Amino acid sequence: MARPRPVPVSPPPTPPLAAELLRGPTAFFERLRPVPPLSWRYALPPVLAALLAGGVYALLLRPVVAATAQGAGALAAHVVNAFGTFFLTVVGAALMAGLGHLGAGRAGRAPEVYGATFAVLPPLYLALAALLLVWPQPDWPAGEQASSVLEHQQAMVQAVMRWPLARVTVLLLLLAPLAQFVLAYRGFFILTADRRRALLGTLLPLLPVLAVTALGLAPLLAAW
């Protein structure tokens, strides 16, 4: 008696890499839809984006630190500037995942959707960092007229914000999350097939995340 042939088992679908989102959000989320959910699948892009955002912010304030601190104090100031932006970016990612889940529901897979959208930020931040490193800087004020270190620091921040490249950088850092929300809406709509839930998953974290982003840029925005 012949044995029954084994039924071939199709391999499980493989999740797309976060970088594939840059090729096309529709194709990316269509490939993600049949993959079993895993909330931390795209945890690396937010961490990488946060590190690069911290580096860009530290480069923006490099003239201020150079004029007001030396040696170990200057190094500590750079670390504090970078870490502050890193921390607030991570907080923003957590708000996206949490509030997005409340709006889009379990089917929306908000941690994965928003985690993947962070893949659009590293190319932007790398380009900004390169420009800040190689672009000729203006002559910064010497600070002889400042009566205190704090006054000199404030004058330096205002001088930095008169630099056109600094203004463009701050504007891009502030508005970059909007691109993520546009991509997230597309992802929620594909995954849930529900326009209302897609809108809720996009709009609930929108203002809190923009507020956190503005908080991190507050010293520069105040000197605009």
Flag low-confidence runs.
Answer: none
Structural class by helix and strand composition: mainly alpha
Instruction: Find the count of extended strands (DSSP E, 2+ residues).
Output: 0
What value does the Rg take, in angstroms? 22 Å
- Could you tell me the strand content as a percent range? under 5%
Helical content band = 55-70%
For the sheet with most strands, the description reads: none
User: What's the helix count?
Assistant: 11
N-to-C SSE series?
HHHHHHHHHHH
Give the overall silhouette: elongated
Mean pLDDT: 92
Distance between the termini: 85 Å
Q: What are its keywords?
A:
224 residues, mainly alpha, 11 helices, elongated
Overview of the structural elements:
With 224 residues, the protein is mainly alpha-helical. It contains eleven helices and no strands. It has helices spanning 25-32, 44-60, 62-68, 71-104, 110-117, 121-134, 149-160, 164-192, 195-203, 206-216, 218-222. Helix 2 (44-60) runs parallel beside helix 6 and helix 4 runs antiparallel to helix 10. The longest helix has 34 residues, at 71-104.
Write the layout of secondary structure elements.
Layout: H1 25-32, H2 44-60, H3 62-68, H4 71-104, H5 110-117, H6 121-134, H7 149-160, H8 164-192, H9 195-203, H10 206-216, H11 218-222
Helix pairs in contact: 1-8, 2-4, 2-6, 3-7, 4-5, 4-9, 4-10, 5-8, 6-8, 8-9, 8-10
